[in-house]
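Something for you to look into today, if you have time. Just paste the record in under my message, thanks.
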Amino acid sequence: MGSCTSKDTSQVNNSSKPAKSTQSKRQEQTQAVNSQQKSQQSQQPGSSNLHPNQQQQQQQQQQSTGSTTDHEKSNNSTFDNNGKSALSSANGQAGSPNGDGSGGFVANGTVASASNGNGTISNGQTMNPVDAAAKSNTEHEVKVLLLGSGESGKSTIVKQMKILHQNGYTQEELYEYKPFIYKNVMDCIKNVINAIIDLDPELIKPKDDGIDGTDAEVQDPPEVVNGTWRKHVLDYDSLNEVLDYEILLDGTNDAVFDPSIAEKIEQIYNTPEVKDFMIHKQGQFYLIDSTEYFMTNLNRIAQPDYVPSTTDVLRTRKKTSGIFDFIFDMGNDLHIHMFDVGGQRSERKKWIHCFDNVTLIIFCVSLSEYDQVLLEENNQNRLEESIALFDSVVNSRWFARTSVVLFLNKIDVFAEKLQYSPLETHFPDYTGGNNINKAAKYILWRFNQVNRSGLNIYPHVTQATDTSNIQLVMAAVKETIMENTLKDSGLI
């Protein structure tokens, strides 16, 4: 590993426990399973030695053995009411790029099958992998690599893992995010203002220098379109004052947001013409997904006694530079050693060759980026960039024996944007309209098309800012990890 896997990054310390040989581990695991099987055979399902609850669990296990899951029987599963679910098939369609065939969305957030890249689906296991791993009485630490392009939600997944498996954030930790949240607010509004200057400068009132007969007095009157003023609605001086305002990340959390700047930001952002501009022009400039959230909550954030909430932290964008690692206790003696790496183009060369021995890759893609452009290159579609990155990962020799969990993230933003920003505008071969199921299946199909190596792909639709959704999805990911671990050990 060397310099490739440090905490931003020099060296990652391995477990201090002495490693057992593979042969010794397999012998212990096989003995544990055989012992458990003999114990089960000595007791009949109706034996008085079993507690009533154990009898019921055993009967349910016998009934489920060899049966298919509900989503394997049905081709018509859809999203739940919140649009948060998992995909039952990694190709999401039956030979159609528009998701019109079999394979639907499962409302319970679990995936029992995976695509091998050629359209076939592997059989589900007959033994619950979590229970089987617990019976083996062996601790496992698995290496999970968290990949994806910039702003795909990788770091938000890490934050959710901290909430779910490390007791969340203390008040002090929340407070440390305050200057970063302030900076996110300013980045959001500055991106909008700069885009207006570049793409629709007529929305800005001409500068008035106070001299009689200036351009401000002789400009053509604003034109009226659909009953609204379309020109000269934004004050020049206010825009410049906001652009000049800086949040210093000096390592302290004592900064207070200037209330006069907050007022000007709200006036700018809530101007109807600005909202209209953002809807129709957002595909032409870089826009942070949390812009609406921070602008809506600006009055609270700008209060002198402001302390960030957990939701604020989840919405906060902090660029990941380098490689960071975290260890999470998942229960059942499973520990996930997760590596979060930078997703921007400049960061990728630091990690693509560093991880040739990982158990699982979690690849995050933002569904909502289909109509957005890169921060680094404003004429490059962000979804196309994610597909190209996925291509380089799944077909890399470093990951030839690695399973991939694909998080199709930001389903909430995706569902909203489809109503006013057609997917077919940016991907002409898509013909499913604004149907969220068809649109998500199409994007999944695009990713599956580049899986020439035939890796197992386990897709999930996610909303990384929703803790309950990530808890559900990570439970399914845990089963995937346990199943793969048992297969590697020769137990299933």
Observations:
- DSSP finds 20 helices and ten strands in the chain.
- The two ends are 30 Å apart (CA to CA).
- The chain has a mean pLDDT of 74.
- Residues 69-169+320-489 form a domain with the Rossmann fold fold (CATH 3.40.50.300).
